[in-house]
Design a protein that fits this description.
The protein has 276 residues and is α+β, with helices and mostly antiparallel strands. The chain has two domains: 76 residues, no CATH class; 175 residues, Aminopeptidase. The protein is 23% helix and 28% strand. The strands form three sheets. Strands 8-9-10-11-12-7-13-14 form an eight-stranded mixed beta sheet, sandwiched between helices. The longest helix has 16 residues. The protein is globular.
Length: 276
Amino acid sequence: MRHTLPIAPQFYVTAPQPCPYLEGRLERKLFTALQGEYAEKLNDALSKQGFRRSQNVLYRPSCAECSACLSARIRVADFEMSRSQRRTLRRNADLKREATSPWATEDQYALFRAYLDSRHADGGMADMDIFEFAAMIEETPIRSRVVEYARTDDSGERELAAVCLTDVLDDGLSMVYSFYDPELAGDSLGTYVILDHIEIAREAGLPYVYLGYWVPGSPKMGYKARFSSVEVYSAGNWQDLGNPEDYSSELHPLSTDPIAEQVARINLPDTRPTKG
């Protein structure tokens, strides 16, 4: 018997596990597979509704009593750099950008390991080996790029400083995962990579740069609120972030709607064949 994939994506919920952002919380994710000929359409549509991609999966937080995680993006046309961000650009003016197809290298993995060991040694990715790293980079059914930032030392050797796995959406760039040399933390490379992606999006005529999740109360995610023209996806709409202090990460038993209601409100792309 021949089996075919269902036309409409099927949504599932993960089992609760410790939250990586807020201590003492449990996270739960709503997710669906990203595969087939309509993968790009689905990724574009769901990214606009707060979902993120991880390899061949699209997911969105759906925690039982917490709604702190908010998908964040920058409006490129309205973005204005702060003084400190201008200093970051000048400080890293010698970095050269190189965008390639999503292919993992040993240099990337060495940088990735140094970054994790320094900043996220107790995180969920801490034990990722080179094969799992390669899967993270290479297993993508959509248009993705690896953007590398490197310097040339006095001997002419190329020194990799930062890397970002980036998806190209129909309305922007999605920064799936970025990492950098922890010994260069004083150069604000995380900020620099975002600033450069804003410039890439501007040059390409794309209106948004998607940053992933901003979590009020999480020091790890606080830097995202320091960019101007940031929007967050909340209650089914994108809205200006405004004052970050106005957001709460408090638990509430009614903060998240039942899964069935969440799925019913997801707008799926039209995958009907066009008439010739």
